[in-house]
Specification:
- With about 160 residues, the protein is of the alpha+beta class.
- The chain has 2 domains: about 80 residues, Beta-grasp domain (Ubiquitin-like (UB roll)), CATH 3.10.20.30; about 60 residues, DNA polymerase, domain 1 (Orthogonal Bundle).
- It has 5 helices and 5 strands; from the N terminus they run ββαβββαααα.
- It has a 5-stranded mixed sheet, covered by helices on one side.
- α2 packs across α5.
- The longest helix is centred in the C-terminal third of the chain and has 14 residues.
- It starts with a strand and ends in an 11-residue tail after the last helix.
- The mean pLDDT is about 95.
- The structure holds FE2/S2 (inorganic) cluster (2 copies).
- The site of one FE2/S2 (inorganic) cluster (FES) has 10 residues, from loops.
- One FE2/S2 (inorganic) cluster binds next to loops.
Length: about 160
């Protein structure tokens, strides 16, 4: 075990990690930030997406030690300063972009990364970007709608499902 230091959601943190401790394990078990979910052991589901130095990363594919010194943002960092839901989270709530909610942290983090690089994505672009995020419940339709609404686009033309 060695000490790993990084900045998570704007706060300097440190914790113990072995060489093979995954970033997901470090966040969830060492820092108790359990909003980052683990939905598979094959790097397919995307429930674990966080941002590392501004890039969306599947935290189950990275060792904690590789994120040493990095700026990490997790779903806990997506709320507004007063604790209310951030824009993307509120859009998921308003447009029913979740059912069980297991995939939601990863979806929100992927959506945030998408909107940073493409502030007004088309429906096809949203669907394409979410390729690495699996949802077992929603059929994706309302997730896509929520992300487009969060980007300020009129989603009235997208039929409800
Ligand atoms: Fe499934 Fe990371 S836990 S991709
Ligand atoms: Fe259940 Fe997506 S809302 S897995």
């Amino acid at each position: 075990m060695s000490k790993v230091e990084m900045t998570v959601n704007g706060k300097a943190v440190s914790g113990d990690a072995a060489g093979n401790t995954l970033l997901t394990e470090f966040l969830r078990e060492e820092l108790r930030l359990t909003g980052t979910h683990v939905g598979c052991d094959t790097s397919q589901c995307g429930a674990c997406v966080v941002h590392v130095n501004g890039e969306a990363v599947k935290a189950c594919t990275m060792f904690a030690a590789e994120a040493a010194g990095a700026e990490v943002t997790t779903i806990e960092g997506m709320a507004n300063a007063d604790g209310s839901l951030g824009v993307i989270q509120a859009a998921f709530q308003e447009h029913h972009g979740l059912q069980c909610g297991f995939c939601t942290p990863g979806m929100v983090m992927s959506a945030a990364a998408l909107l940073k690089e493409n502030p007004k994505p088309s429906e096809a672009e949203v669907r394409d970007y979410l390729e690495g995020n699996i949802c077992r419940c929603t059929g994706y339709h309302n997730i896509v709608k929520a992300i487009m609404a969060a980007s300020g686009q009129d989603v009235g033309a997208i039929a409800a499902e």
